[in-house]
Design a protein that fits this description.
Oligomer: single chain
Strand order of the largest sheet: 1-3-2
Low-confidence stretches: none
Shape: elongated
Number of domains: 1
Radius of gyration: 15 Å
Order of helices and strands: HEHHEE
Number of helices: 3
Distance between the termini: 33 Å
CATH class: Mainly Alpha
Helix content: 40-55%
Structural class: alpha+beta
Number of strands: 3
Mean pLDDT: 90
């Protein structure tokens, strides 16, 4: 239990911000890289997740001055 509490204290101290591991990108990042609209990229990503081609994980990141849970995607290995 002590380790869990220590991890929670650290998470609360930095506002719950998580470090995003290499290889994970937001739908916005993917849309910009591909030249697609965010809506179209999100549609493609949802379909890819359903078909098991892509995995999604939510990370708490700072965006717009606040911390939000934001889905990140990566191709399944």
């Amino acid at each position: 239990m002590a380790n869990l509490l220590a991890e929670l204290v650290r998470a609360l101290e930095d506002g719950g911000i998580e470090e995003v591991p290499a290889g994970w990108r937001t739908a916005r990042d993917i849309a910009e890289e591909s030249g697609k609209s965010l809506a179209r990229a999100s549609e493609i990503l949802r379909d890819a997740v359903e078909r098991g081609l892509v995995e999604v994980k939510v990370f708490r990141i700072r965006t717009g001055g606040k911390v939000y849970p934001v889905p990140h995607y990566r191709r399944k290995p």
